[in-house]
Design brief:
Elements: H1 9-18, E1 22-29, H2 34-41, E2 49-53, H3 58-65, H4 74-96, E3 101-110, E4 121-128, E5 137-145, H5 150-170, H6 178-182, E6 190-198, H7 207-216, E7 222-225, H8 234-238, E8 243-247, H9 255-275, E9 284-290, H10 303-314, E10 320-323, H11 328-338, E11 343-348, H12 349-357, H13 366-374, E12 379-384, E13 386-387, H14 388-397, E14 404-405, E15 411-412, E16 417-418, H15 423-432, E17 436-438
Parallel strand pairs: 1-2, 1-3, 8-9, 8-11, 9-10, 11-12, 12-17
Antiparallel strand pairs: 3-4, 4-5, 5-6, 7-10, 13-15, 14-16
Helix pairs in contact: 1-5, 2-5, 7-10, 11-13, 12-14
Length: 449
């Protein structure tokens, strides 16, 4: 079979311009007009561009799209799409509707500011017809911009926008790789951590599976599945919030394990509440796990398996963050993008042992570097106690046979756990420095040490 030539961004924009059936409007706010610029410079733009607008002034923007919503938000994006589409159809459907596939491309972006103090991100939307007079379809994206300068961010948005328009008109059948196609040539420069599709063109596409695949395909560091309400970008739930993360694999989806998981997360939230003042924001809590396998030699879990674990956690009203990386220091980095409030991991002793036993071969500084990344000044680990029987089974399963402990009425706390030397010295330091906070033994078995 002959290989299909991969078009560059210039070729894609020109191909769209030379297709007489495509015609639409562009409304871009916050990062220049980098998408429409491609269509204007490659030639033949009059065949594609009905209108281009950039309403930077807030009063002008409110007059066009209504007031009330934040200017970089899903609500504002939807208002922009509705307004631009209504104008396009009202003005041109009679004269061009019989032979034109209309589209409206919009974005609202918070690009890197002059001082470099903001978290660059934005919303991108496209409403389009697949055939003249057809029902409109819609795709909404939340993106994070990872370039080090405003100029590079604008360039990346321009490429993403052209890729998106080209993909919906000519590559929609490539369902499995559709979002990888959208980020061609800007991989690692733009993350997509939320996507929503609507309309007959996307019949059979599963919303939650799309989000899980964004992580597994490496297009996002994390995606969010709230227990109540639809999925949202992680920024929406983490922004300026004290946060408790309960990491695990959650492969056991039975009710007994679910009860343990909920008790674990609830204890972490309660502990953090006790550290905060009345003026502080209320803490939020999430179960979190990775879309990658526990062991590098294993294949990644199926999307259906990931969604089954999420469903099990949702049954007891647990919000979920699905991460790309297995390592907890990657989770720290992601959450610290959006909040400088306290971040707490709450883990059972078996996971604590795994953290200390794991070989961090990706990092030049191995375990010491991993620990420094995991524990910035606003991060602590809450260690939840474990029964002696369960702890013994856990350490034997990972061949951590040199660990020792004492117990109180059959329960072991983090203070009673003793790693082998020289790891034991580091463990004692983390414990004494309060980076590792032992939680009390539950219920009637609690004792004062």
């Amino acid at each position: 079979m002959a290989s299909v030539e991969r078009l560059n961004i210039h070729q894609k924009a020109l191909h769209i311009n030379l297709d007489p059936t495509n015609y639409g409007s562009f409304a871009e706010i916050g990062a220049g007009q980098e998408v429409v610029r491609w269509f204007l410079v490659v030639g033949g733009a009059s065949g594609t561009v009905a209108k281009s607008i950039s309403a930077y002034d807030k009063e002008v923007s409110d007059d066009l799209y209504g007031s009330g919503a934040r200017y970089v938000s899903g609500e504002r994006l939807q208002a922009m799409l509705d307004g631009e589409w209504a104008q396009l159809i009202n003005q041109l459907s009679r004269s061009r509707g019989s032979n034109t596939r209309f589209f409206s491309f919009v974005d609202t972006i918070s690009a890197r500011n002059y001082a470099g103090t903001n978290e660059p991100h934005g919303w991108v939307g496209l409403r389009f017809q697949l055939q003249p007079g057809g029902q409109p379809n819609e795709i909404l994206l939340h993106i994070n911009l990872r370039d080090p300068s405003n100029t590079l961010e604008q360039e990346a948005i321009g490429i993403l926008g052209v890729n998106l328009i080209y993909a919906v008109f000519y590559q929609l059948e490539k369902k499995e790789s559709f979002f990888e196609i959208i980020v061609q040539d800007v991989e690692k420069r733009i993350e997509i951590d939320y996507a929503e599709v609507r309309g007959p063109a996307f019949e059979g596409w599963d919303q939650r599976a799309i989000l899980a695949n964004l992580v597994r395909a490496g297009l996002a560091e994390a995606v969010c599945f709230p227990c109540i309400g639809p999925p949202v970008p992680p920024m929406e739930v983490l922004h300026k919030k004290p946060t408790v993360l309960a990491p695990g694999s959650f492969e056991h989806v039975d009710s007994a394990h679910a009860a343990i998981h909920n008790q674990l997360l609830a204890s972490g939230i309660q502990q953090l509440r006790g550290e905060l003042t009345e003026k502080d924001p209320a803490p939020v809590g999430f179960f979190c796990f990775s879309a990658m396998p526990l062991r590098e030699e294993d294949p990644p879990p199926e999307i259906s398996d990931l969604l089954e674990r999420i469903d099990a956690l949702h049954k007891h009203c647990g919000d979920v963050l699905l991460f790309r990386e297995r390592e907890l220091y990657g989770m720290t980095s992601l959450v610290n993008r959006y909040t400088k409030e306290p971040i707490r991991f709450v883990v059972g002793l078996s996971l604590l042992v795994r953290i200390w036993e794991y070989r961090y071969n990706k990092l030049p500084g191995s375990f010491l570097e991993a620990l420094s990344r995991l524990l910035p000044q606003n991060v602590r680990i809450y260690a939840y106690p474990m029964s002696t029987t369960d702890l013994r089974q856990a350490v034997e399963s990972i061949a951590a046979t040199r660990w020792q402990w004492t117990d109180t009425n059959g329960w072991v706390s983090a203070r009673q756990l003793h790693p082998p030397l020289p790891l034991g010295h580091l463990y004692d330091y983390i414990l004494a420095s309060n980076f590792l906070v032992p939680l009390e033994i539950p219920g009637t078995l609690k004792t004062r040490e």
